[in-house]
Amino acid sequence: MPIDILMPALSPTMEEGKLAKWLKAEGDAVTAGDVIAEIETDKATMEVEAVDEGTLGKILVPEGTDNVKVNEKIAVLLGEGEDASAMDAASAAPAAAPAQAEVPSTAAAPAAPAAPVVSEPAEDPEIPAGTAMKTSTVREALRDAMAEEMRRDPDVFVMGEEVAEYQGAYKITQGLLDEFSEKRVIDTPITEHGFTGLGVGAAMSGLRPIVEFMTFNFAMQAMDQIINSAAKTLYMSGGQMGAPIVFRGPNGAAARVGAQHSQDYAAWYAHVPGLKVIQPYSAADAKGLLKAAIRDPNPVIFLENEILYGHSFEIPDMDDFVLPIGKAKIERGGTDVTLVSWGIGMTYALKAADELAGMGISAEVINLRTIRPLDIDTVLASVRKTGRVVTIEEAFPMCSVSSEIAYQVQEKAFDYLDAPVLRVTGKDVPMPYAANLEKLALPSVPEVIDAVKAVTYTA
Amino acid sequence: MATASKTTSARSKSASRTRSTAKKAKPAIAEFDKDEELHAYREMLLIRRFEEKAGQLYGMGLIGGFCHLYIGQEAVVVGMQMAKKDGDQMITGYRDHGHMLAMDLDPGAVMAELTGRRGGLSKGKGGSMHMFSKEKHFYGGHGIVGAQVSLGTGLGFANKYRENGNVSMAFFGDGASNQGQVYESFNMAELWKLPVVYVIENNKYGMGTSINRASATTDLSQRGASFGIPGEQVDGMDVRAVKAASDKALAWCREGKGPYILEMITYRYRGHSMSDPAKYRSKDEVQKMRTEHDPIEQVRVRMIEKGWASEDDLKAIDKDVRAKVAEAAEFAQNDPEPDASELYTDILL
Questions:
Q1: Of A171, A364, B244, B280, which alpha carbon lies 20 to 30 A from A312's?
Q2: Closest to B188 (Cβ–Cβ): which among A189, A228, A297?
């Protein structure tokens, strides 16, 4: 029975990739362990090894093909004594169903809904009218932001694990080593506490480090230096010296990586005076805010998301696109309910808004962009219009950013509320590994819709 | 009478559990000339008298919170200050008053910080453990044991990045020398050849725990061995030995050879902080150090013996230093507290 060779996944979040090169030709003998092909994603390149032995019967996906889906059949391996005629039978067998966690896709440019209410993307007031737009992934936007700022200021450098020769564990620093040399793109040992302190010390003397954490989970090792040294020195020195530094990296749940690698730290850092905390959603957020963070004279926590890295968005095609820190964006105008979210939470909020439009509920969607300082004024202005608020985030509920928003809304717009503020969050459990449990632990679009129905009394 | 040879033997005894290799390459103690002796005497005396006054003000309730006095360890910072060049940075932990005075920061501003007044170095918002001066290249003043070691490594990193020829001096105690980030820093400093002198002020007690009860190996000068960082033990009670060792270490760093470790064998006469009853050591032990190895007394005796200063000359210096400290204390007590509006300043730029 011929054996199907399937497109492998390089990581839990990979959905598709490029079949870069075949290293075996049709008719070649293959033994288990032979490298038969190379595949690429925007994150990495990997060799595909044969698991079984036989003869490469037919190549189904030629080299150089882009966007090959994970688990798509790429070739057929013939066993001993089999010939090409056996392949038809094989191809009739269905490919194994992918056991991937559901990855939210981005509603970057939603089609105009054929719905009773209009829910349209709002213009970004930060982008000058008539600016040409281009498509960029969040990953490219982050890389471009760093490169532009490094060109602009020789005191800016980036350090972290695998940022240089490996080109970034998540390929965010791709190409920076070539352009800026090892002096400014620095591979560190696996030593978060030490290199964070080193970075803060360099910042105290006036350099502008960008410290990449491979993920923010590892920044827990460095918490003391972030809080006690970076955030407090300006105050403790009576304004004499602070730490102009950016701590950045993926934060929050990726997919199927378990409890220790799946946590959103926004509320942790937002608790601390002396820090700014940014959690971008789109490529434009990522680029404009990372550039602002690098220029900011304060320590800035920049919380990215691995799942969003590969998502494409329209961003302004400008020489120097910088967004203001501490200003929220109304992503979608609406009148019946205010959805407040940030980072990857926006994917649930926007999808829910689309579905709600179909149900006749007009949702205004606010993308906070910055967590600290919190642009509560934009939220309040919306609440005064809609009278109802639902917050959406992937973090744990207890003492969350949602809790703070709910508190400030009741404090400052109590008389405008027509319903309690509801929050849709990650569940109050460590992140489980099993695909079904992980899905349950995260927020979902139906949960957002249920919350909206509850606050609009339409359940 | 305290002589150099006596202090050396005391040092050897104190480090009796240590490896003999650490002590074989001792630089000969370079004698000081008259000006250097006088300078060292005056600077150490200023720290001593300042700290005594701080202890007094603490007892009067004018200084709050934690207050860690530097009495007994004066030769370490003064000797290092004499070796450093302008532009070299210092950074230390919470026992930081001596470092600031040695770096020529205004005693009145330091004392006013201790009393929490607006004229304090940090406008009264830092306190005893948190003072800084960009102008004098003093980077604090850090309260979390060992944190300053990574930060000081970052100062060295910045020196190398800027190619300015400066060296960072990161001070920490025998207690901090067991913190993990110290070794993370050692690794990066040697890997990247950063100009950092790690100054371990071994006063033999991490709070109330003697080094023998806290450290598996007590020759702290060799703590960089697994990273290939050279280190040596220095008689930290002899300001000449400190200066000579610092000259050597700073030159090593300036030549681009990477970091260097100096273990200053020293002693604090007072408790860990003002609230320390010091039950973990005998009064005799303290008294013996005071009478036989006092860093200031050593200089005084040498100057008298050599005829470089008379008792009257030294009394005049003492009087002058006391006046300076009294003036600082006066300012620190009369300067107003910070304005309430300062509560919300200096959080972000």
A1: A364
A2: A189
